[in-house]
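Backbone-to-sequence.
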């Protein structure tokens, strides 16, 4: 049976599909190419998959119930990697309905599809954003995540609760992955690495929020993909630990787990910018700004549970990752980056 990967025109889903194909899997890729950002980049990503003989493209809007039912009935996947979503913390403040459609309704349809085909494992993208107002560092999956500060974060937390419910009711093994600030080649143009690289390359100022007093657990795309594929092979089961009822990471009643995938380090934003400046050979003009609504000052992943489950932990450092990103940026966008 093929692996169904959603969001294959997106940053993470595209890379996951490529890795699955490289190891000989058949992949059904799903995307509806929403115009949230440059469609030419999405088409370029899909072009990387198009000539692979074991890849089938399906342009389906998962929020369309009938289309989703037909998708699962046609391909009957045993494993589903659900990466499709409406991303962006700040965008969710101005366009809330897009997040309910793409992140809640579409996810419900995926869960219903998994139920119909009796899926063996659903791995889905959550986000470090679910930690919201939590201030205990590093963020642990054993900490509560009940204080989201953006609608985007709320929809991702809702996904975790919905997946747990379906795992309990219908025995669908499901694993949620909380990603931490993913960056690298083919990255989203609305995120800081590409925005900063374009501005620096063209001598324009970059907006730096909270006057630069921010830290992020920057996680290179290859580590994210490796983590997803390793988790895909680890089928969760209900926990028999008496403490599971009080533990947000595990469940005593459902085959459901949640893991962080992050580099395990909190990097100062100004350090990240300095590495970009060094790789690009130009100094950024910096426009210091206040904290934006829905944003958080710091993220930092505790990945101990991921390592215990898979025997692996992310390991590509920020210096190496930024260098690889800038090399791709120059190749794809050219010297000016426009």
């Amino acid at each position: 049976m093929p692996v169904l990967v959603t969001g294959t025109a997106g940053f993470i889903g595209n890379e996951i599909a490529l890795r699955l194909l490289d190891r000989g899997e058949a992949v059904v890729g799903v995307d509806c190419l929403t115009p949230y950002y440059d469609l030419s980049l999405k088409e370029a990503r899909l072009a990387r998959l198009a000539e692979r003989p074991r890849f089938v493209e399906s342009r389906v809007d998962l929020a369309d119930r009938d289309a989703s039912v037909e998708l699962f009935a046609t391909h009957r996947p045993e494993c589903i990697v659900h990466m499709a979503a409406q991303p962006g913390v700040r965008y969710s403040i101005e366009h809330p309905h897009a997040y309910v459609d793409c992140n809640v309704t579409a996810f419900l349809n995926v869960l219903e599809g998994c139920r119909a085909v009796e899926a063996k494992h659903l791995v889905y993208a959550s986000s470090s954003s679910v930690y919201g107002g939590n201030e205990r560092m590093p963020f642990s999956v054993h900490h509560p995540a009940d204080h989201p500060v953006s609608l985007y974060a709320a929809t991702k937390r809702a996904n975790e609760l919905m997946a747990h419910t379906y795992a309990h009711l219908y025995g669908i093994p499901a694993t949620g992955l909380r990603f931490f600030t993913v960056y690298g080649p083919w990255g989203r143009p609305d995120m800081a690495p590409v925005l900063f690289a374009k501005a620096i390359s063209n001598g324009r100022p970059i907006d730096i929020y909270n006057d630069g007093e921010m830290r992020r657990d920057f996680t290179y795309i290859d580590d994210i993909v490796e983590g997803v594929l390793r988790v895909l092979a680890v089928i969760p089961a209900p926990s028999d630990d008496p403490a599971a009822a009080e533990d947000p990471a595990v469940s005593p009643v459902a085959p459901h787990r949640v893991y962080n995938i992050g580099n395990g380090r909190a990097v100062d934003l100004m350090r990240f910018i300095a590495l970009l400046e060094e790789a690009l050979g130009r100094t950024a003009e910096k426009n210091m700004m206040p904290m934006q609504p829905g944003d958080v000052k710091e993220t930092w992943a505790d990945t101990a549970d991921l390592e215990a489950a898979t025997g692996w932990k992310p390991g590509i450092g920020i210096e190496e990752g930024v260098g690889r990103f800038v090399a791709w940026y120059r190749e794809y966008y050219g010297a000016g980056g426009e």
